[in-house]
Amino acid sequence: MNRRPQAKIYRGTSRNLARLANRLREGEVVGIPTETVYGLAANALDLKACRKIFLAKGRPQSDPLIVHLHHWDQLEEIAQPNEIARTLAKHFWPGPLTIILPKRAIVPDLVTAGLDSVAVRLPQHPLFQQLLERCGLPLAAPSANPFGYVSPTTAEHVRTHLGSKIAAILDGGPCRFGLESTIVDVRNPRRVHLLRPGAITCDELSKVLGTPVVSPAVAKTRSDQPQLAPGMLSRHYSPRAKVILHSKIRSAPASQPGGGEAWVYFTRPQGNMVRGGYYLTETGDQLQAAQRLFALIRELDGKGYQTLHIERAPIGPYSEAINDRLRRAAAKD
């Protein structure tokens, strides 16, 4: 059986962008950078191309895809926006905000898990914006990792796990935010729901809309049930290692951990770290911690640690998003 060669990583030159745009128009799947995490992109209106995303990731068809646009005027082609959606788009796009709306018939059911809604956003990453403009297509793009595993934040992360299953990867450098987009459901303008926290907070959304945005309790959902949005499963973003969360790692445990355990502080401690100790940020900078979270978990998983003890983020601008990912990574099922 012939094995597909590893996908080539392309720099973001004009020639390479034209080459990758052609591959997308031809129905291929391409790894792409966004400001959140790396995605696995295909023509959102091409059923066969979108099937390749699900096959490459091992993703259940109950989990919908986010459709990425080049300009917010394209929103009318894909979805049925209301004034709330237009207000949010005007304020936060391009940026890490995904909006759930009733879909247009042009969007394949596979993209929306068979539901009559669609998740849309306009990304901020300049290379992805150029690629969207060059190919002239809306692109469906979930995170570029095996389903349920830790999301990728570099091009090399994508190649490590999916390099033999996709056509090519566009290198846009490390992701600016490092966590997936905020997802908000605005189908009912009178009751806007936050479905997944991200770089844009509930307070920011509420301030722009002039009305509270509801942040529902985490619901336990099954992978065989159609999901309204990606990232909704109780267990997700999970390494092979077991994840145990702590409010604070105050000192070395009574018995020093062996080589099978790693201890991840949120902020680098002033004194000595425990053996097997790591940290997310030097100074407590929450953006730095968000940028580093998935990359560090991948690194520790690659080193063969069996258990990762990780501190939750203290209250701050990205704490809700960071702790959401940690809670799902640590879930047992």
What does this structure look like?
The strands form two sheets. A ten-stranded mixed β-sheet has the order 1-8-2-3-7-4-6-5-9-10, sandwiched between helices. The protein is an alpha/beta fold and 333 residues long. The chain has helices at residues 14-25, 47-57, 75-78, 83-92, 126-135, 155-162, 202-209, 286-302, 319-330; strands at residues 8-10, 30-32, 39-43, 66-68, 97-102, 117-121, 139-140, 168-170, 182-185, 193-196, 242-246, 261-267, 277-281, 307-311. The protein contains nine helices and 14 strands. Helix 1 (14-25) packs across helix 5. It has two domains: 8-209, DHBP synthase, CATH 3.90.870; 242-330, no CATH class. The model has no long low-confidence stretch (mean pLDDT 93). Helices cover 28% and strands 18% of the residues.
Give a brief outline of the structure.
The protein is an alpha/beta fold. The protein has helices at about 15-25, 45-55, 75-80, 85-90, 125-135, 155-160, 200-210, 285-300, 320-330; strands at about 10, 30, 40-45, 65-70, 95-100, 115-120, 140, 170, 180-185, 195, 240-245, 260-265, 275-280, 305-310.
Number of H- or I-type helical stretches: 9
- Average pLDDT metric: 93
Strand order of the largest sheet: 1-8-2-3-7-4-6-5-9-10
Strand content: 15-25%
SSE topology string: EHEEHEHHEEHEHEEEHEEEHEH
Q: State the end-to-end distance.
A: 35 Å
The CATH superfamily of the largest domain bears the name DHBP synthase
From the alpha carbons, calculate the radius of gyration and give it in angstroms. 20 Å
